Amino acid sequence: MRGQVRPTFGIEIGGRGQRAVLIGEEGRILDSTHSIDRGSSAPAIVETACLLIEQIIARRNLSTTSLQGIGIAFGGPVDAERGITIRSHRTNGFEQFPLASLIEERFGVRTVLENDARAAALGEFTFGAGRGSRNMVYLHLGSGVGGGIIVDGRLHHGVSMTSGELGHMVVTTNGPRCSCGKPGHLEAYASEGAIVERMRLQLAATSPETKANWLAQHGVTVKRIFDAYETDASAKAVVDETIQVIGLAIANLVTALNPDAVILGGHVTEAAMGLPGMVRAKIRQYGFDAAARHVAVASAQLGADSGVIGAAVLASRAS
To answer: What does the pLDDT look like over 106-121, one tens digit per residue?
Structure first.
């Protein structure tokens, strides 16, 4: 690394366990370690995350004074300004939990906290597919649906720290219920589980042979559904509905925010070949022409690293 550039830690706490990543110049990953133990309580998870940081510090022969900062990408709602988690959908004890301050006290290094999807948005904006843009929308399609919004180069949070909760955009008034309990939200259509469930419902009305074929060959997955778009009527119906609701949501965002880039990330994007092109067509079909003509739509480039890289970017900016 050049000059006085110091490495930064990005920490991921979420459904895949805990992960610590040491990040250097230009978002380059220098070292990484993880634990699949999701922990039974918030303190246990924090202890695991700290042990992962300590492993890398020892392995790289670092001192805490050589670190620029620590950034945490947390899988749940957070108050980024106060450095506290609001709750976790997986683990008890994260209600109003002072996560950032606990890790900062442990290592004596400035520590910041962000929601994992918003952190991923910043990672893609800074070092990924959104690099070079000024205003960007990031949509994460995975086990849930989330995202982040960049306005004039800065991550937008909103008055109640809920900006970027794109999975709770209303795409129909009488659709299936979302995980939050309200009907017709994007997540109820475009999450990995929702897409697979709608395909299963389609298969229930097909012939026994068709159903058996789908269930016998590695089961129903998002990739299989999108791959079968041209050859299977049930898969086509599910994909068309999925693209329709994603397209409506993004077209509204493009019209309202006028971004220069829309980045699609998460497991669904990785599995769904051609998704950016399909969404781009819907934006042009439904969006305001002056905004729709000038927006680029692309898949994320950083994959599973986008959140930890984005958290490290936040930490470096805060130091």
So the answer is: 999 999 999 999 999 9
